Inverse folding.
């Protein structure tokens, strides 16, 4: 699984495909102040980005892949 969920954080690793989007949506619905850790993420399917945009979530750890980080930064709040 490309996303591991904790009480208040979703930690992405490797490639997060479209099949992850529904679970991410459910988790964000239950954890509206949940944070996103993309540090180890190298690919993010647009469906996951759309879920994160709709939820207005906060990315606390940017992807180490600079191209992916720039794409995500243009769409989401990051720190």
């Amino acid at each position: 699984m490309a996303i591991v969920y904790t009480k208040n954080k979703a930690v992405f690793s490797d490639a997060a495909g479209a099949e992850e989007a529904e679970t991410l949506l459910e988790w964000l619905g239950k954890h509206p102040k949940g944070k996103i850790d993309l540090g180890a993420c190298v690919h993010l399917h647009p469906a996951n980005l759309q879920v994160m945009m709709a939820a207005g979530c906060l990315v606390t750890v940017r992807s180490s892949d600079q191209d992916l980080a720039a794409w995500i930064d243009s769409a989401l709040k990051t720190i």
